[in-house]
Amino acid sequence: MKTRTKTKLALATASLIIGMTSGLSNAAEPLITGKVDCIAPAGPGGGWDFTCRSIGRLLNNFSHGDLTVQTLNMPGAGGGVGFAHMITKRSHDPKVLAAASTATTARLAQNQFPGMSSDMVRWVGAIGTDPGIIAVSKDSDIDSLATLITRLKNDPSSLTFAGASAIGGWDHLKILMTAHSAGLSDLKQIKYLSYNNGGSAVTQVVGGHIDVLVGVASSTKGFIESGDLKPLAVLGHDRLSPPLDSIPTSFELGLDVEASNWRGFYMPKEVPEEAYQWWVNNLKAASQTDEWKQTMVQNGLEPFSLFGEDFDQFVNKQVGSLATISKEIGIIK
């Protein structure tokens, strides 16, 4: 590869962040140029599609045409088709990424990708998150997460929870993780109703038809600001951005629960280490640009940055914890 090409893309990559340290210049070696596929393992318009297209557009702009990231929609098996494609067809290819989220780890934990596991790919980084949230209607007599937990301990079936995922899906798992962290053991008794989307679940709780909402910050923000929903906790380490920064986190309330829907990427297991580190460094750089921060604000996402080995360890720990919960409620054996 010509030195001129290396220099050009190194400068383009360095322009991702104004004022960053010289560590970014190392991200340009080895150089990855030309067409790159970002697999969105679902149809157009969903979260994985958004992740690929948003970061792809950002990297395209800053590489001045030397890097072209195209989104490759590959729906099927809840992300399993894309995961299998990465493992079986692109195992040594440094010019392919795939979008992932907490839905990916939940399905891996529940063996929904037969014969595949989280250690069969390399986890590159997380670039943002939609934090999980627990909320009740404004008229509910549940005034805190502690009150909710006390009621569940007295009678696990006394409350009904609403979410947008299926039974055993991510919204369902959020309340199970919370209850498990609080010391509840009979998780099967906790009642959960699944709705087609987050909006329907919110409407049922706001209307007083369902006791508790288990959702995400992006779809509840407007209802919290209007006073129709009363938030009990954000399920993670960090508080939400203003004006919702008064909501306590699960960790502040003494519960070890990280239940945000992170957005991130994985790539083939057998790529060279230099190529893996190139993507780690460049995605980290992209996640810190003003352009990406504005994209997060516009789409209701919060900062969540984990890269390289830190992200890999996070993913595998999450898969393990979700597998434990799933076994306890009988989803898997």
UniProtKB/TrEMBL annotation:
Q: Which residues form the signal peptide?
A: 1-27
Q: What keywords were assigned to this record?
A: Receptor, Signal
Q: Name one Pfam family in it.
A: TctC
CDD domains the UniProt entry points to:
PBP2_Bug_TTT
Kindly give the SUPFAM superfamilies that the UniProt entry links to this protein: Periplasmic binding protein-like II (SSF53850)
Q: Tell me which family the UniProt entry assigns to this protein.
A: Belongs to the UPF0065 (bug) family.
Q: What is this protein called?
A: Tripartite-type tricarboxylate transporter, receptor component TctC
